[in-house]
Amino acid sequence: MGRRTHVVLAAAAPALLLVLLRLHMAVAADPPFSCGAPSSAAFCDRRLPIEQRAGDLVSKLTLEEKISQLGDESPAVDRLGVPAYKWWSEALHGVANAGRGVHLDGPLRAATSFPQVILTAASFNPHLWYRIGQVIGTEARGVYNNGQAEGLTFWAPNINVFRDPRWGRGQETPGEDPTMTGKYAAVFVRGVQGYAISGAINSSDLEASACCKHFTAYDLENWKGVTRFAFDAKVTEQDLADTYNPPFKSCVEDGGASGIMCSYNRVNGVPTCADHNLLSKTARGDWSFNGYITSDCDAVAIIHDVQGYAKAPEDAVADVLKAGMDVNCGGYIQTHGVSAYQQGKITGEDIDRALRNLFAIRMRLGLFNGNPKYNRYGNIRADQVCKKEHQDLALQAAQDGIVLLKNDAGALPLSKSKVSSVAVIGPNGNNASLLLGNYFGPPCISVTPFQALQGYVKDATFVQGCNAAVCNVSNIGEAVHAASSADYVVLFMGLDQNQEREEVDRLELGLPGMQESLVNKVADAAKKPVILVLLCGGPVDVTFAKNNPKIGAIVWAGYPGQAGGIAIAQVLFGEHNPGGRLPVTWYPKEFTAVPMTDMRMRADPSTGYPGRTYRFYKGKTVYNFGYGLSYSKYSHRFASEGTKPPSMSGIEGL
């Protein structure tokens, strides 16, 4: 962290000291494990292959015990010394308490919260993505070893291609390019699972388990009454092969992922969790997947209850187990599994196959090797969670992802010596929780953009301007007064989790409510061209701001995580040179005429269908994929083989 960072953090010192005190006071309880006492059971014999050990354990279970293990909350089998296990934990951009397996409510109450994935992707830096994965794997073990987790299987990353700008969960993904998404998946998974960034994989020893989701062609939540639960995605073989499936192939083949999650939707009429061709033939057969397959939560139930694909609950159980799924997020198989067996719809081998995959994962995590605190990852203690190096990386990730979209007449960077006062205006300017996106845990620190800017400008005022991002209640008069009284104005606008999130897609691409009016009126009243900072995951049409000379600069900061406020301030004042590039196309408002349910990637000129993503889209854009400015001046050119590179002295900013 630089000098200015320490100035900002000084205001938060009491809270930081409290966090540090809690970390040092964290007295580790024993994490759940098996085979702690001497045992003659083959499943406790570490010398045997994991497949043999898992098979031995499964062979010792009764039918009822077996079925009980096929839900995400798997109960203990006390007579065999097998503890309960919770499969569902989240770590999309930091260890979170959004699932059932992690409990950040004991001595450890926080974990490093990185930027939401869409912003991290804007760095186009695989090494950074890998290092984030490493931190998440380490902190996951630290929480587990401290007795505050009941599982080490984390359902991340989300690697669905960001196909439509309205998708509420696009923020969770690395963007619209399948190759880039696949690269992100591979290195992130390697980091989480304790592997090197490249090279051979030791698949028998996991630091934590990562899970590629949602397999496949899942990118709609709830659009005009069409829900993800009922949606049947009509996808061509070509689009499936060159857009929707490649990230998952990379996640498995290059990343060595130990988990896959099948999605809610159907693809060409078949629920993905009931698709043998997808789960067994493609993932396990063609890609040699070695791990477990989970459903999304309650996805087995909807096969019968919503989609009507299965005629009875027992049919749904049979469909997914025979397709190759292993564990149900939810209790549907636990409820209907025995009757499905009794009715002859599933066999003992269907059940045992799934269980062997599940127990093999727990064994690869070392949870059947005695107390994990005395094994390979046992030295990862509570003091590894929220450690300084991890928080520094969260700051770097935010810095490197921020994208400068407009900078007329050198509006940025600001000069501390020349800025006597600043008005910070907008609903996203002084609320730290808005920086985190979704699927987050309690962050190690919490600094808003306004608080960070106070470390640079003594005379700083904040006016919210709108009630929230929805901006259906505003106080434009107060905002205009503040703008007219200040030397400089920084507006923090955009979206929040009420506009875009799981189960919520957008209907419009512009700024919500009265935001555009607020921005224009503030810009008209300000003494100098204003700076507009956009906090959002999905793209917004800000053509009005792009073309308004009274708006000097536009910055996209995504949802930048725990250090986002600091990173934004450092970029605005030139302590960090923005180098992020957009990982998605920013479409104009008119794109909403295209049905979100149309899964075709390629344009169809005969019908006016414009296509999707930079690879195929033929329409106008607000900003292109890969767009981003810098405070430096540079140029690129292709050179023929053998051409001597130019002297670096002639390139500004190097």
From TrEMBL:
<dbReference type="GO" id="GO:0009044">
    <property type="term" value="F:xylan 1,4-beta-xylosidase activity"/>
</dbReference>
<dbReference type="InterPro" id="IPR002772">
    <property type="entry name" value="Glyco_hydro_3_C"/>
</dbReference>
<keyword id="KW-0326">Glycosidase</keyword>
<dbReference type="InterPro" id="IPR036881">
    <property type="entry name" value="Glyco_hydro_3_C_sf"/>
</dbReference>
<dbReference type="InterPro" id="IPR001764">
    <property type="entry name" value="Glyco_hydro_3_N"/>
</dbReference>
<dbReference type="InterPro" id="IPR017853">
    <property type="entry name" value="GH"/>
</dbReference>
<keyword id="KW-0325">Glycoprotein</keyword>
<feature type="domain" description="Glycoside hydrolase family 3 N-terminal">
    <location>
        <begin position="108"/>
        <end position="356"/>
    </location>
</feature>
<dbReference type="InterPro" id="IPR036962">
    <property type="entry name" value="Glyco_hydro_3_N_sf"/>
</dbReference>
<dbReference type="Pfam" id="PF01915">
    <property type="entry name" value="Glyco_hydro_3_C"/>
</dbReference>
<dbReference type="InterPro" id="IPR044993">
    <property type="entry name" value="BXL"/>
</dbReference>
<keyword id="KW-0378">Hydrolase</keyword>
<dbReference type="GO" id="GO:0009505">
    <property type="term" value="C:plant-type cell wall"/>
</dbReference>
<dbReference type="GO" id="GO:0005576">
    <property type="term" value="C:extracellular region"/>
</dbReference>
<keyword id="KW-0732">Signal</keyword>
<dbReference type="GO" id="GO:0046556">
    <property type="term" value="F:alpha-L-arabinofuranosidase activity"/>
</dbReference>
<keyword id="KW-0964">Secreted</keyword>
<dbReference type="Pfam" id="PF00933">
    <property type="entry name" value="Glyco_hydro_3"/>
</dbReference>
<dbReference type="GO" id="GO:0031222">
    <property type="term" value="P:arabinan catabolic process"/>
</dbReference>
<dbReference type="GO" id="GO:0045493">
    <property type="term" value="P:xylan catabolic process"/>
</dbReference>
<comment type="similarity">
    <text>Belongs to the glycosyl hydrolase 3 family.</text>
</comment>
<feature type="signal peptide">
    <location>
        <begin position="1"/>
        <end position="28"/>
    </location>
</feature>
<feature type="domain" description="Glycoside hydrolase family 3 C-terminal">
    <location>
        <begin position="402"/>
        <end position="631"/>
    </location>
</feature>
<protein>
    <recommendedName>
        <fullName>Fibronectin type III-like domain-containing protein</fullName>
    </recommendedName>
</protein>
